[in-house]
Amino acid sequence: MPHLTALARQGGARPLTTVTPAVTCSVQATFTTGLLPREHGIVANGWYFRDLAEVLLWRQSNLLVEGEKIWDNARKRDPQFTCAKLFWWYNMHSSADYTVTPRPIYLADGRKLPDIYTQPWGLREELNQRLGEFPLFRFWGPGADIVSSQWIKDCARYVYDQHKPTLTLVYLPHLDYNLQRLGPNHPAIRDDVRRIDAVCGELIEHVQKDGTQVIVLSEYGITEVSGPVHINRVLREAGLLAVREELSLELLNAGASDAFAVADHQIAHVYVKSHDRIPEVRRLLEAVPGIELVLDGEGKRHFGLDHPRSGELVVLSRADRWFTYYYWRDDERAPDFARTVDIHRKPGYDPVELFIDPALHLPKFRIARRLLQKKLGFRMLMDVIGLDATLPKGSHGRVTDKAEQGPLF
Q: Is residue 356 exposed (0-12), middle (13-18) or buried (19+ Cβ within 10 Å)?
């Protein structure tokens, strides 16, 4: 990777100590506040909202991030300071000067159309006219690839040229995809690194012409995994997790459950309704193969996760395992959204969304048929995602055992 290597030679490169959980939303919140999850409150990519009795992931409002933001602090020192926050998470209703984030249009007929949310609002129209529609389906899902990072790079160039922010934060997601699909040791990863290096190189060269200082950093390291831990199925078998049946399919009934887990890569927040049952749930989980640590109050304090949004217990997998959100016993009873890309309905993170179901016969024909139904105005499910949790070969969420496997600054 010649461009990033050249940048490191200009300044330096070193391992970066990250936080637990080492997931996108939590780490980015720490980067922008300098605080641990116990203080900024982003305890994962989502959590159980106890007052709603609902699990919500991938929310967008920056008001969820507690604590002073770096750009607000900087303005106290210099009122002329400006900040652009481009595709970092929690990017709506932010006090940053310029923001761009994915914000699909969800229509009443079930369609999901690509779009972005910007601040100021007029920036959305400028970017759509100049760069074309944001490639949402190349940003996440089976089609996720370098195209989304290229669009974000072009967006960053445009915002930089037009507004010259003092600080520009840019998130380029490309390495997230195949590192999870194939694992970090797969030979194809070299090509992914070359592609993102070229994208970074173009952006670095462009802004350094003005003497802009560039920092490249990562949130976490992705390590090889051998299989999943179905933590919610364990809780269900113990009679702790409740489901609700709708049209013969099962939905997690979080509010009626004595205990359930919000799974997020290699970490899971376990919410236990009765304080008296915490020791019982802890003993149950400590005996599950693939689980490394079960954190109670003291353990959460040690990891900086003692925030009211955290589960009564926080569970970390072994380095070679990860947690599914799956709670059904029979795949025929899985909810309809389980076989789609639906990051908001699923009560946990699902990396299987990165794959077309390998069991499908003629998957391209199925996709074409679904797209035709959509174009003709029919309701349809893009049900092309499988339920085989052995497909992902890379994961993250726990601090890596070796520094060289972790994030870089």
A: middle
pLDDT for residue 344 is more than 80: yes
| Alpha-carbon span 203 to 57, nearest angstrom | 31
CA distances for 286 relative to 48, 68, 194, 232, 282, angstroms:
22, 37, 41, 14, 6
Instruction: For each of the domains in the chain, give its residue range(s) and CATH number, in order of start.
Output: 2-221 (3.40.720.10), 227-398 (3.30.1360.110)
Which residue is it, tokens 């970017």?
127
The whole-chain average pLDDT of the chain stands at 96
Q: Which 3 state secondary structure label does DSSP give 97?
A: coil
Q: For the purposes of burial, counting CB atoms within 10 Å of the CB of 127, is it exposed (0-12), middle (13-18) or buried (19 or more)?
A: buried
Mean pLDDT of the region 176-205 = 98
Helix, strand and coil in the chain, % to nearest 5: 35, 20, 45
Q: Answer yes or no: is pLDDT of 370 > 80.
A: no
- Contact yes or no for 86/152 (Cβ under 8 A): yes
Q: Is the model's pTM score more than 0.90?
A: yes
